[in-house]
Design brief:
With 239 residues, the chain is an alpha/beta fold. The protein has 9 helices and 11 strands. Strand 2 and strand 3 form a beta hairpin. Helix 1 crosses helix 7 and helix 3 packs antiparallel against helix 4. The radius of gyration is 16 Å and the shape is globular. The N and C termini lie far apart (43 Å).
Length: 239
Amino acid sequence: METVRRRSSRTDDRVDPAILDADCNAVLDTIETGGIAIIPTCLTYAIIGHRAEAIAAIFTAKARSYDKPCGIFGSPSMSREVHNLSDERHEIARLLKEEEDLPFSIVAPFRQSHPLLAKVDPFVIDNASKDGTMDMVVSGGPFVARLAEVSLRRNIVAFGSSANRSLEGSKYRLLDIEPEVRVAASLAIDYGVSRYATALGLSSTIIDFRDFSVVRVGHEFARLEETFKRRFGISLRRI
């Protein structure tokens, strides 16, 4: 049976740091022991796990094809640990998040031998990666940022994707998530409406940081495209 923790009216509202820490630790406690949690991001609500049985259950609940891997919910600091990129590209990611306040995900080669990933079940790695790369949300709002900090400290990675049935559009409020998805989770964190809620059903913009090609157009894409050009002299490549 799902336990729900309701905290705020919008995902970017300030939450008492002690409560935020408690919620993040509760999420990690849940997924560390094989459970599934639903969490708030500024992009969408997301459904996450850590162990093989949880990831398999997430794919089933979402009716998601295994041809579409899930990813990690992290931060520029976690990306620096996991992704095999130059210091320059890691710095671009940090500046986009910390100075430009832009939401996005990174696709890049990853270090499977890193302690964060080395003990993760191969089934999870296989279904959270593609062709030697892994997708990570590095700018997902306050809850994801704090979750990433605690994840790094506790050495537990949150794997997952948006909390919705596949191809049915992102969900920006907990109560809008389909029952088939909600029932899979034993814990749900309700922080109100996602910051970037839109009738278009968008999720994160995903950028392959090897060549700055656009894997998926999502929230704030126009601002991202303009900022890459203005600040770094990089033209994003549309595939």
